Amino acid sequence: QVQLVESGGGWVQPGGSLRLSCAASGSIFNINAMAWYRQAPGKERELVAHITRGGSTNYANAVKGRFTISRDSAKNTVYLQMNSLKAEDTAVYYCNAQIATLTSPSRPLGFWGQGTLVTVSS
After folding, report:
1. Residue 3 pLDDT more than 90?
2. What is the mean pLDDT of the chain?
3. Chain segment 68-102, per-residue pLDDT in tens
4. DSSP letter string, 21-66
5. Is 115 left (phi over 0), alpha (psi -120 to 50) or beta?
6. Nearest by Cα to 60 from 45, 75, 43, 79
C-alpha cells in the first residue's frame, strides 16, 4: 500500500507565497515522475507542474515563472513553491506520483494524494 500526504495549503493574500509538500510512503520500490495538479471550483483538474525522476521539469503556462517544482528523492517528497499568487490560483492542489511498488516493481502505478486547499484572497 502506498500513501501520498500533502501539506502546506492555506489562505494567502494576492502576491503572497506558499510551499506545498507531498510525501510518499508505504511499499515503494522506486518513484518515477511526480506532479502537482489543481482543481478549481466548477473546473476540471489540470496539470500545474511535472518533474521526472532525473529532475527535468515542465509547467503550465499559467504558472511559469511563479511556481517551482522540486523533489527530494531521499525523502520521497515533492514540493511546489508558489510565489506571486493570484486569485485564479485558488484551487485544491493534488499530488500525483508514478510509483513502482514492492509487489509490482516493473509496472509503475499512478497514485494521488487527498488534496490540499489553497485560497488566494484579500
Report:
1. yes
2. 97
3. 999 999 999 999 999 999 999 999 999 999 999 99
4. EEEEEESEEEEEEEEEEEE-TTS--EEEEEE-TT--EEE-GGGTTT
5. left
6. 45
